[in-house]
Hints:
Largest sheet of chain A: 5 strands, mixed
Oligomer: homodimer
Number of helices of chain A: 6
Number of strands of chain A: 11
Shape of chain A: globular
Strand order of the largest sheet of chain A: 3-2-7-8-9
CATH architecture of the largest domain in chain A: Sandwich
Largest interface: A-B, 66 and 66 residues
Low-confidence stretches of chain A: none
Helix content of chain A: 25-40%
Mean pLDDT of chain A: 96
Amino acid sequence: MTEEALTEEVVARLDGTPDLRLREVMQALVRHLHAFAREVRLTDAEWIAGIGFLTETGQISDDVRQEFILLSDTLGLSSLVDLINNANATPGATETTILGPFYVPNSPQRAFGDSMIEFDDGGELTTVSGRVLGHDGSPIPNAVLDVWQNSANGFYAVQQPEVQPPTNLRGIFHTDQQGRYEFRTVRPKPYPIPADGPVGHLIDITGRHPWRAAHLHVKVSADGFRSLTTHVFDASSAYLDSDTVFGVKGSLVADFRPSGDGPLQCSVDFVLTTDQS
Amino acid sequence: MTEEALTEEVVARLDGTPDLRLREVMQALVRHLHAFAREVRLTDAEWIAGIGFLTETGQISDDVRQEFILLSDTLGLSSLVDLINNANATPGATETTILGPFYVPNSPQRAFGDSMIEFDDGGELTTVSGRVLGHDGSPIPNAVLDVWQNSANGFYAVQQPEVQPPTNLRGIFHTDQQGRYEFRTVRPKPYPIPADGPVGHLIDITGRHPWRAAHLHVKVSADGFRSLTTHVFDASSAYLDSDTVFGVKGSLVADFRPSGDGPLQCSVDFVLTTDQS
């Protein structure tokens, strides 16, 4: 039995998969997985280390921590999947980026202009505002913005259940009849991905830094439009050129401008597409 | 940013990995993982399904259940790693095969000819015997055979802590001064891999059967020789041609012969190599 013949035997064993798309995905997975092992001449010790790494990655995950998403993010897979599925969106539409591991559904509904701050972390007060538009420039009323970001201490609420209220710096907002949205928050901070798990260890032993550039997350949706998952990056942040999860796109970088004695102002429009492909 | 440029950015981010072998493995892993996603045009829904599958695979694993090894086995990766690392062993040496997910270290030491049966499962009594030899044919005294197999009910002791004693059908034996070994057991049975986890589900939805051909496992070691991990397959077993983990090699198939009113007789020699490469 040669190595290549074994690969083809495994592929053939999947020929009977009833779902043709599942068959395609699984057969390609086997071919690429085997090609990797053959290329590097994977040793027994490396194989069992890999088994242990994956097991630990699953076991440290729970309802609020998703270490496999973190692994996918740090290996660039999440950004690649984003590119594959969104690169052909309508020109002019806001670019997408990764979801990240800290999204929590069912954030509180908040009114136009309301604050998401439920915990005094000493962060710089900021007003984020703008419009949600169709790619023809027409405002979209009643669009939904699901927003989440980290505290000035670097952590998301979901990471600090003993410290932050669970809904701190999370909220669901709607645009008004002119397609405008507005909310009050703190300036997001650069932060390292969690260092206490297997992915943090992998980042460490591969000589990489664990930092993400400062950003807030938003999912924007509206009837008849394609839902958008993206970030707003702070133009003054460190790590814009070396974000550890490869999430930065130049078009997503925005200024957080001083405004006298008032909050910082960050103005961002989100442009949706009707392209569902 | 093109898909290929993203892949190369991730690869470049690993350039600083201090351990050169780790760098080689991680950069190849990223290239093959990305090539897979690009080839199948992995969708967001498929990506999150994969994250969920891997998470579940880690979480169902515990001290005595290793679902990631089972996944590796059923994708043929374990057999491929075995081929990569053992294909160049000395001609005439016993062939290796996979470890499987049910190995438990520290089996009880048992004397020459002793029984491993600690639970009456109605199986066919069998005597397994033979010699451990160097590839020049010289007997190896005091070689160690670490043996484990399933019960006639289909399960390994480690899978049935409420039913079987934990050391049932496991044992460590030594060869005598003539290189001989012998132990009493029951005839192993074909069995399905566990169906109640994510890997069992994957086998099901890919239209595969979950059965392994009947076998006993043995790890053979001796000072100055390369350790051997292999199986002895029952020549009369079903599934020799379609073992669901791709573990069968023709040279590892042995007869379980009737012997009057006595136990079945299975005679197998194990030939070790000094090749440590």
